[in-house]
Amino acid sequence: MDPDLRSRTAADVLADVLTASADAALPRRDRPLVALVDDDERVLALASLALGKHGIGVVTTSTAASALDLVLEHDPDVLVLDVVMPDLSGWEVLRRVRDASDVPVLLLSGRDSDVDKARLLDLGADDYLTKPFSFLEFEARVRALLRRRRPAVPSPAPDGSRATSDEPSAGRVD
User: Fold this and answer.
1) Residues 130-161: pLDDT tens digits?
2) Is the separation of the CB atoms in 54 and 77 below 8 Å?
3) Which entry of 52, 79, 85, 112 is 20 to 30 Å from 45 by CA?
């Protein structure tokens, strides 16, 4: 990883991601769109970078209470939702989203009990990723959900080559 990136705060990285260019920062409907909901700015910044490098548009919010508004306003192709949020339970957000939308939902959580995973999947989640996670797996799971929604989603190179460890996608979220 770039040494300069390590010394920067998550807020700095997020600001760069969101202001790098109007074209990259603003969602376009000619490309897939993912809505990210997480109270950890570091996750929002790194996930935005990881998805953006695949040509995937990203809209974010750091509050669970605004997640449903984000889904209704932007009609994303995938919703990535942290289960444990300070303002409202991800369980409740998932219930509200399912009442209003059929958007595929990838849940993120530090909880790794089979009971929690099964319950959330039964409540309408399409996939579940336990924190800490690698961005390689995160990207693959998002692309898999996108392929169900939008068949022309970018995939890894045919030779199976992946990002090097210098790229954000090779990192982990702890």
Assistant:
1) 999 999 999 999 999 999 886 665 555 555 55
2) no
3) 112
User: Rounded CA gap, 53 and 15, in Å?
Assistant: 16
Of the candidates 102, 94, 173, the residue with the CA atom closest to the CA atom of residue 137: 173
Rounded Cα distance between 97 and 106, Å, is: 12
- Token representation of residue 114: 């089979």
**Structural domain that includes position 47:** 3-149
Tell me phi and psi for residue 17, to 5 degrees: -60, -45
Total domains in the fold of the chain: 1
CA atoms within 13 A on the CB side of 24: 15
CATH of the domain at 87: 3.40.50.2300
Q: Say if 65 falls within a structural domain.
A: yes
Nearest to 63 by CA among 95, 90, 45: 90
If DSSP states are collapsed to H, E and C, what string results for 86-102? CCCCHHHHHHHHHHHCC
| Closest of 69, 57, 123 to residue 92, by C-alpha | 123
pLDDT digits 0-9 by tens, 66-86? 999 999 999 999 999 999 998
Q: What is the CB neighbour count within 10 angstroms for residue 5? A: 15
**In this structure, are residues 27 and 74 in contact, taking their beta carbons and an 8 Å threshold?**
yes
